[in-house]
Amino acid sequence: MRVLIQRVSGASVSISGNKISEIGQGLLVLLGVENADDEKDIEYLSQKLVNLRIFNDENGVMNLSVQDVNGEIMIVSQFTLHARTRKGNRPSYIDAAKPEISIPMYEKFCKTVELLLSKPVKTGEFGADMQVNLVNDGPVTIWMDSKKPM
């Protein structure tokens, strides 16, 4: 399971010109699920996400979590995070889980983050052609892979 986390001052998701989801200060999370993922991957990344200290404290030091700043989280599914690009110029998505696996994993990840955050998580629409708008604050962008903990 991979996530690309962006600290944002605001983000939204639109489909066909209609805004379906929006957050203010918080985290925009792009989530990719692969075939080998299970509950352990959800637990590891959801805990890391909610507790990641990437918001500034009163001294301007990244020392606060999204919970500490009462921020919001938006999670958007993105199978392209599992693109293989070593050969040729056309990415392969063979490692990305099919919808019958990835949809339940995505939904479980969102619910787990909601429980940890103690507030609703905003989402995109799985499988839809979405337009994601954001203001990356910092910029701060962090990539994590549950199979390659850093």
Structural description of this entry:
The chain is of the alpha/beta class and about 150 residues long. It has one domain (about 1-145): D-tyrosyl-tRNA(Tyr) deacylase (D-tyrosyl-trna(Tyr) Deacylase, Chain: A, 3-Layer(bba) Sandwich). It is about 20% helix and about 35% strand. Strands 1, 2, 3, 6, 7 and 8 form a six-stranded mixed sheet that branches. α2 links the parallel β6 (about 70-75) and β7 (about 120-125). The chain starts with a strand and ends in a 5-residue tail after the last strand.
Q: What portion of residues belong to β-strands?
A: 35-45%
Point out poorly predicted stretches: none
Note the overall shape: globular
* CATH architecture grouping: 3-Layer(bba) Sandwich
**What would you report as the Rg, rounded to the nearest angstrom?**
15 Å
- Straight-line distance between termini: 14 Å
Task: Annotate the secondary structure layout.
Elements: E1 2-15, E2 18-23, E3 26-32, H1 39-51, E4 55-56, E5 62-64, E6 72-77, H2 99-117, E7 122-123, E8 131-145
Parallel strand pairs: 3-6, 6-7
Antiparallel strand pairs: 1-2, 1-3, 1-8, 4-5
Helix pairs in contact: 1-2
Summarize the structure.
The protein has 150 residues and is α/β, with parallel strands linked by helices. The chain has helices at 39-51, 99-117; strands spanning 2-15, 18-23, 26-32, 55-56, 62-64, 72-77, 122-123, 131-145.
